[in-house]
Amino acid sequence: MERLDVSDGFDVHDYRHGLKLLKQDRGSMTLENRHGFACPACGERFDRLFVSENRENTFGKPSSPICLVRTDERLLLLTH
C-alpha cells in the first residue's frame, strides 16, 4: 500500500490518479481515496482526505477515527 508522502509538503496532484475530488472551495478540498493509499500518520488505509490552507476549520462529530497531519502550508485530516 502506497503511503502519502508529506515529508516535503503535500501536493494533491501527485496522487490525483487515486483520489477523487468530492468538494472544493477557496481554501479547502475533500477527496475520496479510491486507490487505497495509506495514511501518512498511522499507515492504515484511509477513506477521505480533507486538505485545508485555511487557518480555522470547523467539523461536526466524527463518526470514525481520524488522523491529523500538518505540513508547512496545509492541514490534512484523514478519516478511517
From TrEMBL:
User: At the top level of its lineage, which domain of life is listed?
Assistant: Archaea
| InterPro entries, per database record | DUF7385
What is the protein name stated in its UniProt record?
A: Flagella cluster protein
What's a Pfam family in this record? DUF7385
Sorted alphabetically, the keyword list is:
Cell projection, Cilium, Flagellum
The organism encoding this protein is Haloarcula limicola
